């Protein structure tokens, strides 16, 4: 799936709205960072008939889906794993770091429900304020703990990502930076530096620029009130 590989031809990635679809962003970013050449197929979510359209690409009717010839991979983590098979650097090369990375990816993929539902990703929005529930606060502190423990390791000193070089762990956690940016979530210094680095990343900026141009509104993802005093 790299551009050095003949099988890179005709790879498609089905994604949802760039403004709102976090799982799409995870797979998209992994493909970009691995150098996969792919064609984006973007479908707006929660508009009339969207589920029927998505079901033409994958059995769950969800995004993302990676399509290559007869192969259909319909889950963000499965897409990342498939890409990593041909690009082993998408996981840390050290076995214990790789195990750690896999554990935090699984934790993201199966958890953080309060973050995902109470402060949804909304790339266009800034300075949104709302009351943070105790569950939400606990999840934010857990993310801070995960990022801090990765970033404090020696291996991350040479390069700014969670395990030094960009890995699937970053693909999984980058969307949370965008959640946190919108709602002014305050993190410790080491995590704030990571967040700023993510926001300055060229691929993330490309995604955000496209999100800003979108006009669809998913009402359930428009939460909080605009508060000018938020940083
Ligand atoms: N576990 C799946 C979750 C996919 C998912 O929930 N995608 C959302 C968009 S971010 C979706 O397709 N929503 C449409 C719907 O719920 O009908 C993955 O990791 O890819």
From TrEMBL:
<dbReference type="GO" id="GO:0006559">
    <property type="term" value="P:L-phenylalanine catabolic process"/>
</dbReference>
<dbReference type="GO" id="GO:0006749">
    <property type="term" value="P:glutathione metabolic process"/>
</dbReference>
<keyword id="KW-0808">Transferase</keyword>
<feature type="domain" description="GST N-terminal">
    <location>
        <begin position="11"/>
        <end position="91"/>
    </location>
</feature>
<dbReference type="InterPro" id="IPR036249">
    <property type="entry name" value="Thioredoxin-like_sf"/>
</dbReference>
<dbReference type="GO" id="GO:0016034">
    <property type="term" value="F:maleylacetoacetate isomerase activity"/>
</dbReference>
<dbReference type="InterPro" id="IPR036282">
    <property type="entry name" value="Glutathione-S-Trfase_C_sf"/>
</dbReference>
<protein>
    <submittedName>
        <fullName>Glutathione S-transferase family protein</fullName>
    </submittedName>
</protein>
<dbReference type="InterPro" id="IPR004045">
    <property type="entry name" value="Glutathione_S-Trfase_N"/>
</dbReference>
<dbReference type="Pfam" id="PF13409">
    <property type="entry name" value="GST_N_2"/>
</dbReference>
<dbReference type="GO" id="GO:0004364">
    <property type="term" value="F:glutathione transferase activity"/>
</dbReference>
């Amino acid at each position: 799936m790299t551009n050095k590989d003949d099988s890179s031809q005709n790879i498609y990635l089905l994604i949802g709205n760039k403004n709102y679809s976090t799982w799409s962003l995870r797979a998209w970013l992994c493909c970009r960072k691995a150098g996969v050449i792919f064609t984006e197929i973007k479908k707006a979510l929660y508009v009339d008939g969207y589920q029927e359209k998505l079901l033409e690409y994958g059995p769950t009717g969800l995004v993302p889906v990676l399509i290559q010839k007869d192969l259909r991979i319909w889950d963000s983590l499965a897409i990342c794993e498939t890409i990593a098979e041909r690009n082993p650097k998408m996981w840390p090369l050290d076995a214990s770091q790789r195990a750690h990375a896999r554990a935090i990816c699984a934790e993201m993929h199966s958890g953080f429900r309060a973050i995902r539902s109470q402060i949804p990703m909304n790339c266009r929005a800034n300075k949104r304020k709302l009351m943070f529930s105790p569950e939400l606060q606990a999840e934010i502190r857990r993310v801070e703990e995960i990022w801090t423990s990765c970033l404090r390791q020696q291996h991350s000193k040479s390069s700014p990502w969670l395990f030094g070089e960009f890995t699937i762990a970053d693909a999984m956690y980058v969307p949370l930076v965008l959640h946190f940016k919108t709602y002014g979530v305050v993190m410790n210094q080491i995590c704030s530096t990571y967040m700023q680095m993510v926001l300055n990343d060229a691929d993330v900026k490309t995604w955000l620029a496209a999100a800003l141009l979108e006009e669809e509104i998913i009402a359930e993802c428009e939460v909080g009130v605009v508060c000018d005093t938020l940083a």
